[in-house]
Design brief:
Layout: E1 8-11, E2 23-33, E3 38-41, E4 44-47, E5 52-64, E6 67-75, E7 79-81, H1 85-88, H2 93-107
Antiparallel strand pairs: 1-2, 1-7, 2-5, 3-4, 5-6
Amino acid sequence: MNVQQGDKAYIVFSINPSNVGRIVNVAEYIGKFEAGDMFAFRGMKCQALVNDHYWWIEADDLSIQLGPSPRAYIADSWLRPIKSDDKKKDLTAEDIEDRKFFMDMILG
């Protein structure tokens, strides 16, 4: 899967082109479905458009078929995670000492 629950991600494909590029919170895993499968999630009738894992996402500015919404479901392959460089890099003891030294120089 491209994303995990709790990730920040951006939309790379959407039925509604205005959602492409939007930053979302990956709130909850829904399940894996085949194209055409119908499913209900949180009272919403949904249809899988592609064979994929599906996620419940949240953002302030999503557009769904019914209009603006703070939540929607989306295929995993249509999302990409946003990762900071700090999360990718494990700090070594030497890195920490270098940062302490630099801060001491600045703060005196």
